[in-house]
Amino acid sequence: MNEVIIVGGGPVGLMLALELSLAGTDPVVLERCDTIDPTIKAGSLNARAADALRRRGLAFGGDEPLLPAGSIGARTPRIPGAARPEPAPFTPPRFAGHVAGMTLRPDLVRWDELGRTAESALVAQQQVQAVLRERLALRGVEVRHAVTVSGVTPHDDHVVVHAGTGDLEARWVIGADGGRSTVRKSAGFGFDGLDGVMTGYQALVGGDGLDVIPLGWHVTPTGVFRRMPNNLILTAEFDGAPAARGTAITADELTGAIRRVTGADATVTDVLSATRFTDNTRAADHYRRGRVLLAGDAAHVHPPFGGQGLSLGMLDATALGWRLGGVITGRLPESVLDDYEAERRPEAERILDWSRAQVAVMRTDERSRAAGRLLRRLLDTSDGATEMVRVLSGDVVGYGAPGELAGSFAADWAGGPGEAGSYFDVASDGAFVLAYGAGSDMPEAALGGDVRPFAGCDLPAPLVLVRPDGVIAWAGDDSDGLLDALRTTGGRTT
Predict the structure, then answer these.
(1) Phi-psi category of 146—alpha, beta or left, where left has phi over 0 and alpha has psi -120 to 50?
(2) pTM value?
(3) DSSP letter assigned to residue 188
(4) Could you tell me where the beta strands, DSSP code E, fall in 126-208?
């Protein structure tokens, strides 16, 4: 019997497989497609989700860093044992993001206040998927392609997965199979929320008259659009959800949408890639039912503005992976799986509210446009622009009380004298990390096979215990408090 089956081999399912593998388990991934879907999808990760990959040392091959040219604060790859280079100066980006189709002004953002907490990554979802596939292959994790799952049947001590290749059994099953999740539906999860009021298209096209459409984000009397220099065009109209989302998108359909929203006399002749979407916003009533768990779009859906969905799902994966891995290997009690939902579902609800608010001010009725004009005035202030960048970069994500270290995400602290690499380098194998500052006494009783010591510079406390997902579990200078934190968080079982 399999220890754990992950249904869905997109970025979230693959990240889960990596985290479970690092936690000492042997996951199996079932993916219905035999190749990576080239359809246009998310094009960025917020800083917290990008850090999840940086912590694992993932790159796109050779010496190329995870973050490609043009992204914010690309991290320089390091050779183990070599001296740590000076970090490159932080350069504010030319594009700070957008809210409800309104572009933020980079000159108003207080970048010195945000610094590297805003290190988002401009990277295509397909690239993330490809680099995760490569890492799993190196680790020997089994990813089965062209496997269609028709449902799951939960039992008290295992779950049966009904697949086209035959039934499979596993102790645990994770649904990472998207917004129309078969796992979620067949396991009986609720999925309440709001229906869509918008029809959106995102397409890479060729044609006539496209060059007269202005670049960037624009709000018009009939909707919202964005055009990129390569004729990647997004349109959104607020006259109802699409009647048939599963049908092929034609050049005529895109021509009509572009003309209605932009007002340009353009004609699409070539559709290189296209997707149709709406703004339904829903979340699963629970993230766990017995031995079935959900992550990514299987647990929550919302419109694809700003790439928030991919980042949300990647952090689901890192929050669940070490916990379920600890349960399977006997290091942790099953109760820690309840903590997964307690941390991640409120974050999904925040993103749903964020999406609903944007749609509310993008609609074309005069009340919504009045709200949009008010929001524009707030965005054109330094406080407003800075706060929006904090939200977009994921700097607001955390699980503790505001201002407290416990529950916040650890930065990539520099190593102290004689330390090779940084915190991210030490965290690459998925273990707990105990960071201690210069002059601090390292409690020898805290160390072991499941805790990595790290002598760091500029730490926020003399002793900092960091979970495998990069979240600070405990910080202080009390050895007894540290040992108690190790017992309760999973760094120790005794």
Answers:
(1) left
(2) 0.90
(3) T
(4) 142-144, 149-154, 159-163, 168-175, 191-194, 199-208
